[in-house]
Amino acid sequence: MEKKKYPDLEKGMFHGLHKAVQERTGISLPVIHQALTEQDDRSKKKLQAIRVALEIIRERGLLAEDEYCEPDLNNPAVSEPVAEYAMLDLQKAYTYWDYLKWTFLDRVELIRGKVVKMSPAPSSIHQLVVRVVNRYFDQFFIDKPCGLFYAPFDVRLPVPGARKDSTVVQPDLTVICDVSKIDERGCFGVPDIMVEILSPGNSRHDMNVKFNLYEASGVQEYWIIQPQERSILIYLLENGRYIGLPPFTEGTVACGRLFSGLILPVDEVFGYLPKEHI
Questions:
Q1: How many domains does the chain have?
Q2: Which of 147-156, 197-206, 230-239, 261-270 is predicted least confidently?
């Protein structure tokens, strides 16, 4: 007989919880029944049903905090939810399925299976720049068959030489013109343009780690916006390598080559930022 994934729950703990789980999640009873009775966690909804059932069990004092079921390590779709970034094993290689089940306040990305903590909530400077950048991109793409998405938005990048579903990033802005790459969870594939806005805490990550990652994955254009320097860098993919255009600084208008007419006037992007506050 196949070993149950959740051995701690074979004592009938899920009995009578179906309605309570439905009230909290809105998931249909047949799906909840499959999840709880058969311990079937092969979809996001079923996994959510199991997790909510466990929460209810804990609330009723039937399961200690440290008794959550041991995951089946041979099944990449099964992993243990965590509450804090510090609880993760940063030496372990994770997948997108692990990433889906993490529930904590810290913002993280998954780079070739390794967890990378993102900066805390974006600063006011970051958000002011985002507002202007989004406005220009919105105006340009509003009548074009491309998807324009803002963080938080998961991009599952296929990285050559890396394990499948082992890289998940959240660019500040993403342009995707092949709509077949867009699904209910975000983007699965390589976007056309990735835009990152630097903050003091993420400069090295975006300038080095993501630069190499986007280049290896085949992202056609990588835009890096630097509020502290009041400049914009644009890298174009040529023969598998990024070629940088001259930096766009105050008094100039940033533009790439992939989309004629897509521009960012540097003075407009940083116009709301007092120099003494940068």
A1: 2
A2: 197-206
Asked if residue 129 and residue 62 are part of one domain, the reply reads no
> What would the two tokens of residue 118 be?
């993102």
> Is 89 a member of any domain?
no
CATH code of 257's domain: 3.90.1570.10
The residues near 38 (Cβ < 8 Å, ≥ 6 apart) are none
* Residue at a domain's end among 71, 91, 107: 71
Comparing CA positions, the residue from 211, 206, 221, 199 lying closest to residue 128 is: 199
What single DSSP character describes residue 248? B
Where residue 95 falls among pLDDT bands split at 50, 70, 90?
low
Count of alpha carbons within 13 angstroms of residue 41, beta-carbon side: 25
What pLDDT digit, counting tens, does each position of 10-46 carry?
A: 445 566 778 888 888 889 888 888 888 777 777 888 8
Q: What is the domain range of residue 191?
A: 124-277
Tell if the pTM clears 0.70, that is, is over it.
no
More confident residue, 101 or 37: 37
Reported in sequence order, the residue ranges of the chain that DSSP labels E, i.e. its strands, are 108-111, 114-117, 147-150, 155-156, 168-169, 173-176, 182-183, 186-188, 193-197, 221-226, 231-238, 241-244, 253-255, 263-265
- What does the block give as tokens for 175? 């342009």
Measure Cα distances from 5 to 58, 64, 77, 262, 265 in Å. 18, 18, 11, 51, 55
Question: Which residues sit opposite 176 in a β-bridge?
Answer: 147
Cα 206 from chain centroid (whole Å): 14
